[in-house]
Amino acid sequence: MSNDYEVIKQAIIGKSSISATYQGYHREMSPHVIGTKNGRKQALFYQFGGESSSGAIIPNAKSNWRCMPINELSDVKLIDKGWHTVNSHSTAQSCVDTIDVEVRY
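User: That's the sequence. What structure does it adopt?
Assistant: Structure tokens below.
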């Protein structure tokens, strides 16, 4: 798990993306924030590819934000698919309350 945390942290620093499995679904995501909430390691991602329990991934949709606990991710890898976000991210994130690293815009 700590290795997964470090991979995600490095992806944030380098504005890179990752692939991972979460709840049985393969996902391609760009992490934006990593840290803890109530002592639990979590990250806020923008999912741009793969699968989701909520249906198809719609390109550039605001609904693609995902807050995920790090210990529930598996097969975490850096991927070479650019870094993704949406320009209209205006709501303050509530996924992480103690931020370790976050994307600088």
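The first helix runs from residue 2 to 13.
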